[in-house]
């Protein structure tokens, strides 16, 4: 007769108990009640969205309960007014990775969700929301949902990270691979100095891989690819677009000249050579004779005309109201161009070397790959 092993029997007994407990615990752990009630926003709340203000809306609800008293996770779902949340427009976990019974969404977030719901810019529309509680594989919808009305601002819910201009009327032509980039000046705001001719003019966002087209209609920025050039003959324009309020402007740049402060006039007009670049070579410059010596201060004058046909002028000069003469070791920032006031001498640069009765090469760079700047080489 074989010897009976009490330790082995005891081990098998304990393992059986643990296995039974695991099965019971699993069953209990996944038993939860639905969210008890939706607290805020109240039913039929109206919100006029203002994304730049950083205002926010707090969604809050009562707790769901688990049978074993352990944690429950929450997910907030949004859908169209007639949706059933089977394929929600948008969903996200609540605060603290789904543990909190509230969710804070900014007006910018809600503007994007409203866009997904088909609510147009500057229009009102309804959005429905609810909350799912979950534990393990068990997901329990709330017993109710609520509808809110949102009024979207003018503008687009999402601005491109990068923006380009393309079309037969642009410098890059109709080939998208040759599209010319805009300069980003702030969030959702872009500008470009470029030449337009007769033909199509479209703005393109390729951030997501699927191109999205925009076009300019007067002072409005619209989605679509039906844009046309404002001119039938080649002209240089400063184009500005603001996706935050769907605004746009086209300003014709009629000329760019070297403004010589001591003579209070443009000494030489600089031709446009393409893609935000003006350049002239071997042009004579003679410093102005004063009693104390020769004055060499200069900046640049942009003569321009808006869409209404009104002409104006804009000086581009230094960030400093007064400057020392440039040297070979002057930092790149010395040559940066910024808009300045209509004054004769202030915010001028000084030539690096004597240019009296010499020739110079002048380059003005209004391009997207860095700060606007210029270069002067004395021959």
TrEMBL record:
Residues 23-132 form the SusE outer membrane protein domain. Residues 1-20 form the signal peptide. InterPro entries: SusE. The keyword DNA repair does not apply. Pfam families: SusE. Keywords: Signal. PROSITE patterns: PROKAR_LIPOPROTEIN (PS51257). This is SusE outer membrane protein domain-containing protein.
